[in-house]
Amino acid sequence: MKNMRKIDVSQKVIEKIRTGQVKMKSKLVFVLEKLGIKGAFGLLLIISILIISLIIFLIQQQSSSQFLGLGSEATFAFLSNLPWGWLLAVIIFLLLAAVILRKFTLAYRQTLKRSVINLTIIVILISSLFSLTGFHQGLAVKASELDNSLLKSVYRQALSCDFDKEHLLIGKVISIDKEKRTAEVVTIGHQSMTIQLFSDTKIVDAPKAGDIFGAVGYKEGSIFYAQGVRRVTLSALKNRCLLEGRALESQ
Amino acid sequence: MAENNKLYQLADNQLVEVIRTKDEELFAELIRRYQQKLFYYVNRLINHPDEAEDVVQNVFIKVYQNLNGYDSRLKFSSWIYRIAHNEAVNWLRQNTKFIKESIEQNEYLENTLSDNHNLIESLDLKADLEKVGLAIQKMPKKYKEVMLLKFIEEKTYEEISDILRKPVNTIGVLINRARKILRNQILNI
Fold first, then answer.
1. Which residues of A are less than 8 Å from B69 in CB distance?
2. Which of A140, B31, B123, B155 has the fewest Cβ atoms surrounding its Cβ within 10 A?
3. Considering only CB atoms, which chain A residues are within 8 Å of B108?
4. Residue of chain A nearest B67, judged by CA positions
C-alpha cells in the first residue's frame, strides 16, 4: 500500500550537520530574543499602567465627575471631559501586549478576548494602586511650575480650570426661597446668579445657605435652570478651579 | 552499545537535552522517532509523497537549528508537529496548484482510514471508508487540519491547540463543526 512507504531522511540531515551546512543556533540568540520580547511586553504594560493611572488622576481632577448621577447633562459633560486619546492609546498598547503574549508564550491556549480581558483587569488593578501613590499629583505640580513642556501638555487637562460652564455650575448658596423654588448664589467666578429648581430637579444632600454646591442644567442670562443639585465639599472637588472655590468659602 | 540503548530509551525531552549539550549525532535518533509520523502527516496535508519527503527533511533541519529555542513546557511532539504543520502550509502556499489535486484524490488518507477503524466509530458514522476519506479531503482547511490531528494523529485537544496555536476552546468548536460537516458531506456523496 502506498501509505506504507518508508522514508529515511536521517542520513541526509546528519550529513548536513556533520559538514557544517546546518548549524544549531546559539542559546544566546534565543535568550536575547526572549529578553527583547519580555522587554517589549513589560514596556507596553508599564506605559499602559502609567496612562490608566493618569486617566484616573484626570477623572479625579475634573469637576464634572462630581456631578455624575445628577442628570444627562452631567453624563455628557463627564464623557466630553474624558481623555479619549489616552484611552485609545492604552487600548492599542494592551492589544499589542496581548498579541505579544500569545505569540511567544502558551497564552494562545486562551482566546484573544480572554487574554485582553485578563491583561486589562491586571493593568487597571495595578494602575488603581499606583494612582494612590500621588505620583501624578507630584508631576502635575511640577508641570504647573514650567512654562512650556511636554509634561505641561500631558497634565494640561488637570491643570486647566476649564469645565462646561454652560451646563455645570459651582458656587455658594446665599439664600433659598422655598416657595419660588429658587436660590440666590455666587459662582466661583464671583458672579451673582439665581438657580431655578423644578419639581423633578434631583437634589442630593440638599445644600443650605452658606454651603458650596454643584448644579447641572442650563444657563439663560443670570438664571440657571437646574436638572440636579448637590452639596459638595471642597475636599471632594480636587480641581484647581476650587482654589477659586476656597476664596468663595471665605466670603 | 549498552549506553546507546539507554540513550534510545530516553524520553524526547531528555534526548533533546543530551543533543543540545553532549552529542549532536544523537539527533539521528530523534529523526528515527518522528520521520515516518511526520511524513504521513505532511503528506495528508499536501498529498505529494516525493515533496512530502523533502518537506520532512526541511522540518528536521529547522528542528535542529532551533533546538536551543525549544520550550520544554511544551510536549516535544507538539513542537515538532507545529514546525511540520508550518512547513506543509508554506509548501501549499507556494504550490497552490497541488491543493486542488490533493482534494481530488488522497490515497494516503483513504489507506490510513482503512487502518483506523476507530475513526468511523468515534465519529459515529455509518459510511464506508472511501466516502469518509473523500469527505475529509473536501473539507475547508481549518476543519481538515483538526480532523487529521484528532482522528488520524490521535492528538489531544491541548496538543492540537499547541500545534495549530489556537485556543483549546476553539479546537473543540472546530472539531464539533467538522463532525457535522463530515456527516452532511457523506450524506451528499
1. 25, 29-30, 33
2. B123
3. 2-3
4. A24
- Confidence at residue A2, expressed as pLDDT on a 0 to 100 scale: 47
Protein fold of B105-189: Arc Repressor Mutant, subunit A (1.10.10)
pLDDT digits (tens, 9 = 90+) for A75-115: 888 888 888 999 999 999 999 999 999 988 889 999 999 99
Q: What is the CATH number of domain A168-249?
A: 2.40.50.320
What does the pLDDT look like over B66-107, one tens digit per residue? 999 998 889 999 999 999 999 999 999 998 765 555 544 555
Please list the residue range(s) of chain A that carry CATH number 2.40.50.320. Answer: 168-249
Residue of B nearest to A25 (CA): B65
The alpha carbon of residue A37 is apart from the nearest alpha carbon of chain B, in Å, by 14
Nearest Cβ partner for B68 among A7, A12, A27:
A27
Beta-carbon contacts below 8 Å between A and B: 86
pLDDT in tens, B113-157: 555 555 556 565 555 666 777 788 788 889 999 998 998 888 999
Question: What single-letter DSSP state applies at residue B58?
Answer: H
What per-residue confidence (pLDDT) applies to A137? 84
Determine how many CB atoms are found less than 10 A away from the CB of residue A94. Answer: 23
State whether the Cα torsion B132-B57-A109-A92 is positive or negative: negative
- With 70 as the cut, is the pLDDT of residue A160 above it? no
β pairing state of A223-231 and A212-220: antiparallel
Interchain contact, A22 vs B108, CB within 8 Å: no
Are B164 and B85 contacting, i.e. CB atoms less than 8 angstroms apart? yes
**pTM for this entry:** 0.75
Which CA distances in Å does A206 have to A81, A93, A197, B148, B184? 26, 44, 12, 71, 69
pLDDT > 90: percent of chain A: 40
pLDDT exceeds 90 at position A133: yes
Contact B64 A10 (CB under 8 A): no
- Taking CB atoms and an 8 Å limit, are A10 and B20 in contact across chains? no
- B1-104: CATH topology is Rna Polymerase Sigma Factor; Chain: A (1.10.1740)
pLDDT digits (tens, 9 = 90+) for A36-88: 999 999 999 999 999 999 999 888 877 677 778 888 888 888 888 888 999 99
Chain B residues within 8 A of A100 when measuring between CB atoms: none
**Cα(B45)–Cα(B99) distance, rounded to whole angstroms?**
9
Closest CA to B176 of B148, B152, B149, B143: B143
Interface of A with B (CB under 8 A): 1-10, 12-14, 16-17, 22-27, 29-30, 33, 106, 108-111, 114
